[in-house]
Amino acid sequence: MTEVSRIGLDLAKSVFQVHGVDAREEVTVRRPLRRGQMLGWFGKLPPCLIGIEACGTAHYWARELTRLGHTVRLIPPGYVKAYVRRNKNDAADAAAICEAVGRPSMRFVAFKTEQQQAASGIHRVRALLMKQRTAAMNTLRGLMAEFGIIANKGMSGINELLAIVADPEDSRIADPLRAGLVAIAATLRALDTQLGTVDKAMAAWGRADKTCRHLNTIPGYGPVLSTAMAARVTNPQGFDSGRHFAASLGIVPRQDGTGGKVKLGPISKRGDGYLRRLLVNGAMSVLRSKQAKHDPWLVTLLASKPLKVVAVALANKMARIGWCVMMRQEDFRVAPVTAA
Fold this sequence. Notes:
Blueprint: E1 6-10, E2 15-21, E3 27-34, H1 38-44, E4 49-53, H2 58-67, E5 71-75, H3 77-80, H4 90-101, H5 114-145, H6 154-166, H7 177-208, H8 210-215, H9 223-232, H10 242-248, E6 253-258, E7 261-267, H11 273-287, H12 291-294, H13 296-304, H14 307-328
Parallel strand pairs: 1-4, 4-5
Antiparallel strand pairs: 1-2, 2-3, 6-7
Helix pairs in contact: 5-7, 5-9, 7-9, 9-11, 10-14, 11-14
């Protein structure tokens, strides 16, 4: 126990696997631990380096083990896979984590504070509610279309359908389906109320957070994107430049080459897909605004590229600007346009 210098910890629901080595890379501990034994066992251990896969509950355990004096590193699961030998099991995963965390070129994930994790969690709640609302809307449209009732796209069409369902004198839809559609309408109203509560809580956190206030000054950024960026990007200093940050979000061309010839394909779609989607949505809002007509860079791109291609290019630019704002902790300033 006194000779342990590095530990690989494989997390689970109830039983965790520990694999530790000393300074000579010899295995000194290999054992399972139950959840209730974790803090007591690591509390008796001298400070050492602990590697954990960046998965569920990893940020919680990273905070707890750091309080005990240990140095904790979170590793992306995809980077650990290369070190698993033969059959995959908890003991083999712990050994692979222990080996991966000692590599000098390994990349790590910065673990979140409790406030950042709470802000990130409310985005997951909002995404779930949005998914449920979209499913309810699509079900309402599909069932009423079976009776020849077609509505326009968007919320205006949904409101038309809800008005038909709420009208007791409309006999185009018979029981028992009408009762089911009334239940869907009630579900949609409840989801709208819950989404309003979540959005208010999210906006309140954003107003209290300095980084969110700076991000809100960037065109295309709003309360949702700003809070998501501030909550999920816990360590912008870990990226060498804004280009590296944009690449980590998967909004750069994917490279595929051999023999010295490199081909650029579609975007790589690696990293945080939620942030990437919000950035593209923010870019689309900019392209549909008056600002797109006065920005020479956007005007040039729109003249030769499809709208969605330009949106991805603008999302890339927004990500790099967001990284600069987070690094400098200051508001965004529009660069003056020089006359040609």
